[in-house]
Write a structure and sequence with these properties.
With about 260 residues, this protein is of the alpha+beta class. It has four helices and 14 strands. It has a five-stranded antiparallel sheet. The protein has a five-stranded antiparallel sheet with strand order 4-5-6-7-8, with no helix packed on it. It is globular. It starts with a helix and ends with a strand.
Length: about 260
C-alpha cells in the first residue's frame, strides 16, 4: 500500500512540476519581501511571510539574499500581524500562530533558535498539541517529495533519493535554500538565469508549521490529504502548490494562492 501511495505522490508531484515550469520567473514575481515583514538581529534576518511560515536567515557577513532562488521566486506577500520583543541578546517574534525565539548572534542551532506553535492533534487527550522546533531536529515524519530526475524510475525505486517536502506527520517541515542557486538577470528571452551563490557561510531556511495532525488510525493516503487540506493556513492558499515537494520549489501568491515551480 505504501509503495502505491508513494508512487502516486511522485506522479502527482511530477504533474505539478510540469504545469508550473513553463517559465522560471514571471513578470509578476517579486523576490523582495515587504520591509514591514522583516526583522534583523545582528547577523540574522527573519521574514514573517505568513502566520505559520517564516524565513530564517543567518549570514557570516551580515549580508542577506533578496534575489529569487530556484526554490523561491516571490516573497512579496501581505504582511501578517506580529510583534517583536528584544530583551538583551534575546529576540522574540510572535504571530497569531507561532512564537520564534533567537538568542545571541551565532549561526542557528538547537541552543539559540526555536519556534513553538500549537496545532490540532486527534491523538492527544485535549485534541491540541504544542510543538517546539529547533535546527537539527529529526524530520523522519516528512512525507518527502520527488527526486531530481525520474529517469530510470521503477515505482518508488529511483536513481537518486527523494528530497524533503513541505508536508510532514511531525506538523512542521523545513525547506533549506542555503545552497540553492539564485536567479540573475540576463539579456535573453529567458530574462533570468541561474548562478551559484557566493562562498559566504550562510543559512537560509523556511519553516512551515501546519494546523493539525491526522489520527493514528488514518491510512497513509488520508495523512497526505489531511496535510494538504490544512497546509493552506501554513502557506497562504492552494492545495495544488503543496502536493509538489520537488527539489526545486518556487513560492508565489496570486489570487490568494501559493503555487510551485521547478526548473
Amino acid at each position: 500500500m505504501r509503495s502505491v501511495i508513494m508512487k502516486d505522490l511522485a506522479v502527482c508531484a511530477l504533474c505539478v512540476v510540469t504545469a508550473f515550469s513553463a517559465s522560471a520567473q514571471s513578470a509578476g514575481d517579486d523576490p523582495v519581501a515587504d520591509s514591514k515583514a522583516v526583522v534583523v538581529s545582528g547577523n540574522a534576518r527573519f521574514t514573517v511571510l505568513e502566520s505559520r511560515l517564516v524565513r530564517m536567515e543567518w549570514a557570516a557577513d551580515g549580508k542577506f539574499e533578496d534575489r529569487a532562488t530556484l526554490g523561491v521566486v516571490n516573497r512579496k506577500l501581505p504582511v501578517p500581524a506580529y510583534t517583536v520583543k528584544k530583551s538583551g541578546k534575546k529576540l522574540t517574534i510572535r504571530t497569531s500562530d507561532l512564537t520564534l525565539t533567537y538568542s545571541g548572534n551565532g549561526k542557528f542551532d538547537e541552543n539559540n533558535l526555536k519556534v513553538t506553535f500549537r496545532m490540532a492533534d486527534p491523538a492527544s487527550k485535549k485534541g491540541v498539541r504544542t510543538v517546539t522546533w529547533h535546527p537539527g531536529m529529526d524530520d523522519s515524519g516528512n512525507l518527502l517529495g520527488t527526486t531530481r530526475t525520474l529517469d530510470g524510475c521503477d515505482g518508488v525505486k529511483t536513481k537518486e533519493p527523494y528530497d524533503k517536502g513541505v508536508i510532514s506527520r511531525d506538523g512542521w517541515a523545513v525547506m533549506d535554500e542555503s545552497d540553492r542557486q539564485v536567479f540573475v538577470p540576463v539579456d535573453s528571452d529567458w530574462r533570468h538565469w541561474v548562478a551559484d551563490r557566493d562562498s559566504t557561510d550562510r543559512q537560509d531556511l523556511y519553516l512551515f508549521a501546519t494546523t493539525r495532525l491526522p489520527s493514528q488510525t488514518s491510512p497513509e493516503s488520508e495523512v497526505v490529504f489531511l496535510c494538504l487540506r490544512n497546509m493552506p493556513l501554513a502557506t497562504g492558499g492552494a492545495v495544488s502548490g503543496n502536493i509538489q515537494t520537488s527539489s526545486s520549489w518556487g513560492l508565489e501568491r496570486r489570487s490568494a494562492r501559493w503555487t510551485s515551480r521547478s526548473m
